[in-house]
Amino acid sequence: MIKKLHEMGIKSGHMYTAGMASIGLSIASWFMSKKVEPAGLDRADRWGIFVGQWAPTFFALGVALRIEETHRELGEQEMFERAEGARTRAPAGV
Questions:
Q1: Where is the chain membrane-spanning (predicted)?
Q2: 2 found inside a domain
Q3: Domain containing 71: what range?
Q4: pLDDT tens column, 75-93
């Protein structure tokens, strides 16, 4: 799925922006629901929590896309060489 998102042109920055927007939208939806709807504080809390739960998903997708971007930038061989180099430099007993 991450590879497909990357091929569609979606970048990690887009997901980070969506996560931040979700936090702002959560606050706005809570405030609007509290002030505009006569349903009371309970419904406002539910709206705020519902929208606020999107943020971690967007941030996780952003991290996964960043890994995909890095993977494509470096290429598989160079990533393998870096991993091998890190293993050979590790202190004895680790």
A1: 12-32, 47-67
A2: no
A3: 12-87
A4: 666 656 666 666 666 565 5
Distance CA 67, CA 56 (A): 17
Residue 5 lies in a domain: no
Does 83 fall in a domain?
yes
For residue 37, how many C-alpha atoms fall within 13 Å in the half-sphere facing its CB?
A: 15
Q: Would you give the DSSP letter of residue 8? A: T
Give 36-71 pLDDT, tens digit per residue.
767 667 777 877 888 888 999 999 999 999 998 888
CB of 51 closer than 8 Å to CB of 20 = no
Number of helices and strands (H, E) in the chain?
Answer: 5, 0
**CB within 8 Å of 61: residues ≥ 6 apart:** 2, 5, 15
pTM as predicted: 0.68
